[in-house]
Amino acid sequence: MAGRVEAMLADAGDYVKAGAPLCRMRTLPTELQLRRAGGLLAAAVADLKKKEAGYRKEEIDQAEARAAAARAGYERWKQEYGRTRKLLADGASTPAEMESTEASFRQAEEMLAEAEAGLRLQKSGFRVEDIEAARAQVATQTAAVEELKDTLGKMTVAMPFDGFVARKACEVGEWLTPGTAVVEVVDLSVVRVQLDVPERYFAGLEKGAAAPVTFEALGPDREFAGTVSQIVPASAEGTHTIAVRVDVPNTVEDGRPQLAAGLLARAWLPVGEEHEALLVPKAAVIRQVGRDVVYTVSDKPPPGAAAGKPPAADRSPSASSRATAGTWRSRARG
Q1: Residue ranges of domains in the chain
Q2: Which long-range contacts (CB under 8 A, 24 or more apart) does 289-292 make?
Q3: CA nearest 100: which of 84, 76, 83, 79?
Q4: What is the tens place of the pLDDT at every residue in 202-219?
Q5: Distance, CA of 135 to CA of 115 (rounded, Å)
Q6: Cα–Cα 20 to 30 A to 92, which of 108, 178, 246, 322?
Q7: Contact at 8 Å (CB) between 34 and 148?
Q8: What percent of the chain has pLDDT over 70?
């Protein structure tokens, strides 16, 4: 719907409830068209009611009176016509008088026929075709009114959901055309964390699994309960990663969200069965003679001092205290 912006009713950063107006265009021309269409609809409805109900008794009485008057006039001129013909035959009248009398008689005859036809029409009511045409006119005018109401409703842009205005895309006085952005809004009731997980962990991913999330802006000690909501079963070409989405419930208090869109997040995903394992710093693992070893110190070392032992190191993408969890970083989205 094209139109000129008359008012911007929300600004960037505002928290707006669903259905609240964001932008209103100039509506006066459309309102005037709607009034005119409403008047035409009212007239069409009145005409249909009249035709469906038929003529009133008073109208029929008037038609009968007109028919009676026409018949009286016809009878008078009929007698005058007969008398003039006889006089003309006796030589007591002229052809001109006869012609004038005959013209008046024929006119009275036509008036009688017209009055009687009108009386029959009013007694029988309107034709079915006339009533159907009136109904079609009502339907046409109703459609015109509904179309203008729909247009008028579209001239106010409303918030589609509870959320925040991220950016204003137009100002008062600008001319908008269909498809022009008015505002950019975000729904932060649930923050979605998008992750790219190495494809080797695909078999261990499970939809609905708990996935704790932390946000760097809020500190590592604040952990939020997330849930794996989507796993795309396709490995990205080049990176060989699986797209995973984790949903984190958000809260809004006094128009301020606990979590914002775009925050850098870290999520832990369960990718296997939980088991006990010895975790050591990566720097403690030494490569010797084709194998990895870790040196330990004992109070009673065997002969030959320290002995090499194979490590039970976690092979997940980022070592942590969770032996079954891989850690991925991403940015949160609304």
Answers
A1: 3-26+155-185, 35-151, 189-277+314-333
A2: none
A3: 84
A4: 988 999 999 999 999 999
A5: 28
A6: 108
A7: yes
A8: 88
Cα–Cα distance, 212 to 56 (Å, whole number): 81
Asked if residue 90 has pLDDT above 90, the reply is no
Q: How many CA atoms lie within 13 A of 86 on its CB side?
A: 6
Domain 189-277+314-333 is classified in which CATH homologous superfamily?
Efflux pump adaptor protein, beta barrel domain (2.40.30.170)
287 contact partners, CB below 8 Å, separation of at least 6? 293
Q: Which residues pair with 223 in a beta bridge?
A: 214
Tell me if domain 3-26+155-185 and domain 189-277+314-333 are identical in fold.
Answer: no
Position 73, amino acid:
G
The tally of CA atoms less than 13 A away on the side-chain side of residue 190 is: 11
Tokens 């075709």 locate to 129
Note the pLDDT tens digit of each residue in 107-136. Answer: 999 999 999 888 888 777 778 888 899 999
pLDDT of residue 315: 40
Distance of alpha carbon 233 from alpha carbon 244, whole angstroms: 9
* Pairwise CA distance, residues 24 & 155, whole Å: 6
**How many Å apart are CA 167 and CA 172, to the nearest integer?**
15
Average pLDDT over all residues of the chain: 85
User: Half-sphere exposure (CA, 13 Å, Cβ side) for 61?
Assistant: 3
CB 250 within 8 A of CB 267: no
Extended strands (E) in the chain: 3-8, 15-16, 21-25, 156-158, 163-168, 175-176, 183-186, 190-198, 213-215, 219-224, 227-235, 241-249, 252-253, 256-257, 264-270, 286-288, 291-295, 308-309, 325-333
Top CATH class of 3-26+155-185 equals mainly beta
Global pTM reads 0.53
